């Protein structure tokens, strides 16, 4: 079984709809991240969480919100989806121990299309 | 702020060719440097890393050396295979903010 799973893997929705992307991990890591990938732009950080009670905005958090329901679960919501949120979304995790926290482990991604 | 710049792709090579993908960075302090690889339809996976100047990271025949004087971390492989076709991302760790900063990615295609 994969260590970091994302659901759904693909989603097509319409402008204005609320969408939730879910991420679960079995690695026992405290830290979790949400990124979006756009062609030619690499990965950009949306939100990150260093533990269940800690949520931080990344560089492109506008239009998104997150919920850390448990150590193993971190959800990303689009309250009112718009077409320029069409992208590939990745969840990632990392350990909190010094020397290990730099290495992130990625899920397989969710391809979201907003029409 | 910190940033990473990679050579633009796509890069197309023949099997057994020598590969170089350039990566330079701008950072305050002394970041760790990474190469991640994304195979078709998959998430990113760590390929190699280096944590201090002059360190060489290596894995699966790929190598990269942390060059502080030129702020570079170029990825090299002596003889590429079709299975190396993927998108490669250079990244640095912003130790102060404890986050990764990624380059834009370089798509590599290897033809048999």
Model description:
- The complex is a heterodimer of chains A (115) and B (112).
- By secondary structure, chain A is mainly β.
- Chain A has strands at 4-7, 10-13, 19-25, 31-38, 42-51, 54-57, 64-70, 73-78, 87-94, 105-106, 110-114.
- In chain A, the strands form two sheets. In chain A, strands 2, 4, 5, 6, 9, 10 and 11 form a seven-stranded mixed beta sheet that branches. Chain A has a four-stranded antiparallel beta sheet with strand order 1-3-8-7, with no helix packed on it.
- In chain A, a hairpin with a 2-residue loop joins strand 7 (64-70) and strand 8 (73-78).
- Chain B is an all-beta fold and 112 residues long.
- Chain B has no helices and twelve strands.
- Chain B has strands at residues 3-6, 11-14, 19-21, 23-26, 32-38, 44-50, 56-59, 62-65, 75-77, 86-94, 99-102, 106-111.
- Chain B is globular and about 45 Å long.
- The termini of chain B are far apart.
- The A-B interface holds A 4, 33, 40-45, 48, 50, 58, 90, 92, 101-109 and B 4, 32, 34, 36, 41-46, 49, 51, 89, 93, 98-100, 102-105.
Rg of chain A, Å, rounded: 13 Å
Helices and strands of chain B: which structural class?
A: mainly beta
Tell me the overall shape of chain A: globular
What percent of the residues of chain A sit in helical stretches (DSSP H or I)?
under 10%
Portion in helices of chain B: under 10%
Q: Please give the largest β-sheet of chain A.
A: 7 strands, mixed
Count of helix runs of chain B: 0
- Report strand % of chain B: over 45%
Quote the average pLDDT of chain A.
Answer: 93
Estimate what percentage of residues of chain A fall within beta strands: over 45%
Class by helix and strand content of chain A?
A: mainly beta
Q: Uncertain spans of chain A, ≥5 residues at pLDDT below 50? A: none
Q: What is this structure's SSE topology?
A:
The complex is a heterodimer of chains A (115) and B (112).
Chain A: E1 4-7, E2 10-13, E3 19-25, E4 31-38, E5 42-51, E6 54-57, E7 64-70, E8 73-78, E9 87-94, E10 105-106, E11 110-114
Parallel strand pairs in A: 2-11
Antiparallel strand pairs in A: 1-3, 3-8, 4-5, 4-9, 5-6, 7-8, 9-10, 9-11
Chain B: E1 3-6, E2 11-14, E3 19-21, E4 23-26, E5 32-38, E6 44-50, E7 56-59, E8 62-65, E9 75-77, E10 86-94, E11 99-102, E12 106-111
Parallel strand pairs in B: 2-12
Antiparallel strand pairs in B: 1-4, 3-9, 5-6, 5-10, 7-8, 8-9, 10-11, 10-12
């Amino acid at each position: 079984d994969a260590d970091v799973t994302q659901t759904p893997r693909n989603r097509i929705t319409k402008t204005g709809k609320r969408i939730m992307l879910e991420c679960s991990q079995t690695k026992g890591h405290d830290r979790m991240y949400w990124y979006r990938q756009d062609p030619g732009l690499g990965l950009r950080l949306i939100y990150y969480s260093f533990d269940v009670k800690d949520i931080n905005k990344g560089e492109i958090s506008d239009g998104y919100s997150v919920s850390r329901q448990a150590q193993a679960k971190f959800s990303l919501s689009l309250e009112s989806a718009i077409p320029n949120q069409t992208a590939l979304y990745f969840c990632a995790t990392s350990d909190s121990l010094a020397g290990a926290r730099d290495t992130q482990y990625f899920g397989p991604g969710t391809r979201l299309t907003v029409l | 702020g910190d940033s990473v710049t990679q050579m633009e792709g796509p890069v197309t090579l023949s099997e057994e060719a020598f590969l170089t993908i350039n990566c330079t960075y701008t950072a305050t302090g002394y970041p760790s440097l990474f190469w991640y690889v994304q195979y078709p339809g998959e998430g990113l996976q760590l390929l190699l890393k280096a944590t201090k100047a002059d360190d060489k990271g290596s894995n699966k025949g790929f190598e990269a050396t942390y060059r502080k004087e030129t702020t570079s971390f170029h990825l090299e492989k002596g003889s590429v295979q079709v299975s190396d076709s993927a998108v490669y991302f250079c990244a640095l760790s912003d130790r102060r903010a404890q986050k990764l900063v990624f380059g834009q990615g370089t798509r590599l295609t290897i033809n048999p």
